[in-house]
Automatic annotation (TrEMBL):
Keywords: Cell membrane, Ion channel, Ion transport, Membrane, Transmembrane, Transmembrane helix, Transport
Membrane topology: Multi-pass membrane protein
Family: Belongs to the pannexin family.
UniProt keyword Transport, yes or no: yes
Chain segments annotated as transmembrane: 21-39, 94-116, 179-204, 265-285
Name the record gives this protein: Innexin
A family per Pfam: Innexin
Source species of the chain: Mytilus edulis
GO CC annotation, single: plasma membrane
PROSITE patterns linked: PANNEXIN
């Protein structure tokens, strides 16, 4: 079990709120599914009050039949349906599947993380290894840390250069791929939490208002707890017995003791989903602004460069905007943000310093090459003039 949960967790390259969904919520639902499934398989999930003339084998048959077939719920003081077709309208057919329902909910919470882990590899960089490398760089000596940060900077620099070599739409996609994918996954977390909350409310509520609010209202006003029609403890079961040429119809009253437990489980799940939905919405809003606005991208790089005292002139401050927008782009700054979440500011400060140095060195090299070409052009031009002058004198 621990190995399965560890596999669900995956490598740490998301934030804590993401892990609340795909790690802790998934683990919670899996544990609950196994607890309920174990109780149903190894305990007696149903007890029926059979007629006095039933033998022990007939009582056992009645219990097994009513468990695997659908039962129906009628409030204690309401009239029992007169025939089987009428009782089918009040059938309850889900309680056998509660463990599978919980497992399905766990899969839905894991789905956004699976999509993220599959599609992020197409960005051209290994974000998992970059984050892991940044985390491990904190463990060694200062000299080892500098070597690790330098290697990580070269790794990111090569990826950024490959993206910047692209043109047109391909460059636009490459520079924003991780950012757009990450926001899409954040939206999936929100939709998943809200969608499951709405479905669970419709599934559990006696009326159509939210089940959790109904529970709080009853609890705060000291109203007696109304038995939910979705989790009734006392139900009825119709079954037929063939005796020679006659078919007898029996209606027995049964009790589902585990429904008391199931009801409390789903009340707790409702409040947990409500909490996760609020966190997911807050997390989406928190990430949307910094990774989509150009100003925040420049500010992020600027704050770390100022810590390094990297600005020696006003020209360096102007180059910071070019560094953030043209060189780092949206995905480059996003990778730095993810590393910052999963390591320390010291690691990111050193990493930005190395990337800035690589960028400025390339800028200086490019500028020197341009000056060299310009001087060579002037030299060639002057040589041509010197050659032409003697020819003109000879002509004279």
């Amino acid at each position: 079990m621990c190995r399965i949960l560890a596999e669900f967790r995956g490598r740490s390259n998301g934030d804590r709120i993401d892990r609340m969904s795909y790690v802790y919520t998934t683990s919670l639902f899996i544990v609950l599914a196994f607890v309920v499934g174990f109780a149903q398989c190894f305990k007696d999930p149903i007890q029926c009050w059979a007629p006095a003339e039933f033998t022990d084998s007939m009582v056992s048959y009645t219990k097994n039949y009513c468990w695997v077939q659908n039962t129906f719920y009628v409030p204690m003081f309401d009239q029992i349906p007169g025939n089987i077709s009428e009782s089918q309208d009040a059938q309850i057919s889900y309680y056998q599947w509660v463990p599978l329902i919980l497992l399905f909910m766990a899969i839905l919470f894991q789905l956004p993380n699976v999509i993220w882990r599959i599609l992020k590899g197409r960005s051209g960089t290994d974000l998992d290894n970059a984050v892991q490398f940044a985390q491990e760089s904190q463990l060694g000596s200062r000299e080892d840390q500098e070597k690790s940060i330098k290697s990580l900077a070269y790794f990111i620099d090569k990826w950024l250069i490959d993206n910047n070599k692209k043109t047109g739409i391909a460059k636009q996609i490459a520079s924003k791929y991780l950012v757009v994918l990450y926001l899409f996954v954040k939206i999936l977390y929100v939709l998943n939490a809200i969608g499951q909350l709405v479905l669970l409310s419709a599934f559990l509520s006696t009326y159509f208002n939210f089940y959790g609010f109904e529970f709080l209202e009853n609890f705060s006003s000291n109203k007696p707890w109304r038995e939910s029609s979705r989790f009734p403890r006392v139900i009825l079961c119709d079954f037929q017995l063939r005796q020679l040429h006659n078919v007898q119809v029996f209606t027995v009253q049964c009790v589902l003791p585990f429904n008391l437990f199931n009801e409390k489980i789903f009340i707790g799940i409702w409040f947990w989903l409500f909490f996760i939905a609020i966190l997911a919405i807050f997390n989406l809003c928190k990430w949307f602004k910094p990774i989509m606005l150009t100003f925040n991208k420049t500010q992020f790089c600027k704050q770390y460069l100022q810590l390094n005292n990297a600005f020696h002139s006003s020209y360096d401050k102007k180059r910071c905007a070019q560094f953030a927008e043209s060189y780092m782009s949206e995905d480059g700054v996003f990778v730095l943000r993810v590393i910052a979440i999963n390591s320390t500011d010291l690691v990111v400060t050193d990493l930005v310093k190395k990337l800035w140095k690589l960028y400025t060195n390339k800028q200086s090299t490019t500028k020197n090459d341009e000056n060299f070409e310009f001087n060579m052009f002037k030299l060639v031009g002057n040589s041509d003039d010197d050659i032409k002058k003697p020819q003109n004198n000879e002509h004279l």
